[in-house]
Amino acid sequence: MRSRKTVFCEIAFWDLFSKYYPTSMPFPDDQSQQRIRAWFGLYSFLSRSRIIFNLSEADFIVKVNNDTRLKYLWKKATEGQCKIDFDSGVFIPFNDSERFLTSVVLTKDNFESKCADYGIININESNFSIKSQLFIDNGVAIRNGEEWDWCSIKDHMVEKESNSMVIVDNYIFGREKHNLYRLLDSILPSKCSVPYHLSVFYLIDREYQAETLIKSERDFRDNLKRIRPTLNCSVEFFQTKRDQNNAYKTDFHDRALITNNIWIDSGAGFLISERRFENCMQKYYSTKSTTIRIAYPFFCSDNVKSVDEGYTNLIEDAKKSILRMGKTTSNRLLG
Questions:
Q1: Are the CB atoms for 273 and 286 separated by under 8 Å?
Q2: C-beta atoms surrounding 83 within 10 Å
């Protein structure tokens, strides 16, 4: 897996998880099928991750000899499919460590609220069945002219914990800017215990004037402060240009929004609804037929390659674009 995720796994969680292994096929009702999918979904995710267990290597080897499922995972690590490390110190390092801020934490007890403060995902014994929805991708199909608003995307999301974001859309400062802010209002956390990093990549077209671009960036920051007044958000803009020596190609074609946990891909970009006032009420209608994909790139097991590569390519291309501009970034996703 190109964009391997780091997972802090409490051994007490693994012991419970290992015992939940479906040794016999139960009656195939919806609940039992979901339990089976959840187990294999998480195991598949761990099989492609860098796992840090909170015990010494010697203690781990002892456990391997008494746990068949752990032995299979250890075998995958020796084959290079995943990576296993050890840290017998404090298990959950709630601090500003960057390795922690881009990780997933697996615990026996519920640390969901505490982890959410740092924009990371906690899977524990009490929420395991709910979090199993992370192992599938989701999305929504929109028909031209139907009533639809970016706020409704929340109904299709399982998880929105994050501490960093990258937005790529060449024409993100188009006329219908309300699309962007309603999308962000549906995704951004209300607060974060560390500075939230947000990077925006857009195209400088010939019709844009410098004053217009400056105003658009200023308006973006002002609106962000309006919708998230308690979020300490660090915003940076990268203005890509058409390359006259390469048939006017730009750095990016696809329009996407990624966080440290989510990938949202919109085939028609983000400016896909228009605002109307009907009977003194504000409503939104789609301006085209399109599809929006919501994926949790580190968890998806059915389309691992395409999701993983799409997410990773976007990050790598963003890094190259920044380097070509001679600029730097503080965004932990691009570090």
A1: yes
A2: 15
Q: What is the pLDDT of residues 32-54, one digit of tens each?
A: 777 788 888 899 899 999 999 99
- pLDDT tier at 162 (50, 70, 90 boundaries)? very high
* 250 has a pLDDT exceeding 80: no
Q: Does the pLDDT of residue 60 top 90, yes or no?
A: yes
Do the beta carbons of residue 189 and residue 160 sit within 8 Å?
Answer: yes
Q: Which CATH number fits domain 6-134: 3.40.30, 2.60.40, 3.40.50, 2.40.50?
A: 3.40.50
Distance, CA of 6 to CA of 106 (rounded, Å)? 11
Q: How is the chain split into domains, by residue range?
A: 6-134, 136-325
Is residue 92 classed as helix, strand or coil in its secondary structure? coil
Residues 6+ apart with CB under 8 A from 131: 38, 121, 123, 158, 159
Question: What is the Cα–Cα distance from 93 to 166, expressed in whole angstroms?
Answer: 25
Residues with Cβ < 8 Å from 282, sequence gap 6 or more? 275, 276
Which H or E run includes 139? strand 138-142
Helix, strand or coil for residue 36? helix
Phi, psi dihedrals of residue 172, rounded to the nearest 5°:
-70, -20
Sheet containing 138-142, strands listed edge to edge, beginning at the edge strand earlier in sequence: 138-142, 290-295, 263-266, 256-259, 164-168, 196-204, 233-241
Taking the model in full, what pTM does it have? 0.87
The CATH homologous superfamily for domain 136-325 is MITD, C-terminal phospholipase D-like domain (3.30.870.30)
Calpha distance 173→222 (Å, rounded): 14
Axis-axis angle for helices 68-78, 30-46 (nearest 10): 40
Task: State the first-to-last Cα distance of the chain, in angstroms, to the nearest integer.
Answer: 19
DSSP letter (8 states) at residue 5: P
Q: Are 170 and 250 in contact (CB under 8 A)?
A: yes
Contact yes or no for 38/132 (Cβ under 8 A)? yes
Measured CA to CA, the distance from residue 329 to residue 334 in angstroms comes to 7
